[in-house]
Design brief:
about 170 residues, mainly beta, Chitinase A, domain 3, Thrombin, subunit H, 2 domains, five-stranded antiparallel sheet, four-stranded antiparallel sheet, 2 helices, 9 strands, about 5% helix, binds zinc ion
């Protein structure tokens, strides 16, 4: 496998990342003794702003990145907040505000959601991504770059350590 000196489109990239919100609070990080995270550049494995920003970077590069919601987890949509009758949920499901769940939409896709409130027989749910509407502040270290295999390109994600396991 070719050793690449710089990230080009469609390669597998390893990163350490810290994600903070605008107040500097850490939302997520894999620097605490974890393995680097690997993603296939351009395949949508990570948010768009990050996917595009790594192109041209080299191994061991460290950089900070500010990503607008549009290139992050999307803007919050009022349409993603819905009121549903209690009866659409399983009878034994304990419904509480803040609870996360996964539902199936009309096209059979799995959509994550969160219960906002339960009033009588009416359940308000929010299908926005929990990080929708947030400007993201990333601190990225590039830990590795390698060519993607044929199989990885077909699958749209990296395999092996730090990648996808089947
Ligand atoms: Zn795969």
């Amino acid at each position: 496998m070719t050793k690449l000196s710089e990230i080009v489109e469609g390669v597998v990239v390893g990163i350490y990342y810290t994600l903070k919100d605008s107040s500097g609070e850490v939302i997520d990080t894999n620097r605490k003794g974890g393995e680097p995270m690997f993603f296939l550049q351009g395949a949508g494995n990570v948010v768009k702003g990050l996917d595009l920003a790594v192109v041209g970077k080299k191994k061991n590069d460290f950089f900070e990145l500010e990503i607008a919601p549009e290139d992050g987890y999307g803007v919050r949509s009022e349409e993603a907040i819905r009121k549903l009758p209690r009866s659409v949920f399983p009878e034994d499901a304990p419904l509480e505000a803040g609870q996360r769940f996964t539902a199936q939409d009309d096209q059979g896709r799995m959509v994550p959601g969160m219960i906002v409130e339960v009033v009588g027989d009416e359940v308000t749910v929010d299908h926005n991504h929990p990080l929708a509407g947030l400007t993201l502040f990333f601190e990225i270290t590039i830990t590795g770059i390698r060519d993607a295999t044929e199989e990885e390109r077909t699958h749209g994600h990296p395999h092996g350590p730090g990648g996808h396991h089947h």
